[in-house]
Please model this.
Amino acid sequence: MDQLLPAGPTSVDDDALIRLYDFPPGLDRPWVKVNFVSSADGAVAVGGRSRGLSDANDKKVFQLGRTLADVILVGAGTALIERYRGVKPNELRATQRVELGLAPVPPIAVVSRGCTVAPDSPLVTDAIAPTIVFTAATAPGDRRTALADAGADVVLAGDDDVDLAAVLAELDRRKLRRVCCEGGPHLFGSLIVAGLVDELDLSIAPLLAVGDAGRIAAGPLPVEPTRLRLASVLHADDMLLLRYLRGA
Model:
């Protein structure tokens, strides 16, 4: 990879990549880092999944987000479509996690208003760190009970819908402040509207996908757009790897 911004072009090795993408030190609140890949014409998926857009460079940044995180936040729909399961130690840089004082693997926190995660999903049954399911009080009680009996950590975070501020408050209470959000578009859109996004790590694939795929964020219009500043730009194999921070 070559670093074009802030000081480039400079070749970037794995250690430099970690320094570039790491969370801020000494966090006293959750920092929400959102990770997405899209095509050059704005498609969020090819054939219904993001895998068709990704390459080895994007996957490295994706896995790095997991390595550096206390918790992985994802919407239930994305978890189902992308066939999520619990994170395994061999997916992460164990030495880096030890140096940062992080748990061996981060839990996955799923946002599911209706508590639709299946109790026999690998997301629940194949997880070293128990999967956290944030749901609403209106979700059927039998679903909540079945998930809890299967080993998930079911947390009520709202009445009719999941309150994302309450989700982050609960993660903060658990000292899970390095939050890596992997989508999907509706969860990202809701985080934007709530003013809860601190960082966007966006990979732009050199593809024109067309089709009916959506964009990386979906939802109601916010009162005003969130202003970002471009913090870094990497280039590798025609893929652009952009890192934005919320503007002052």
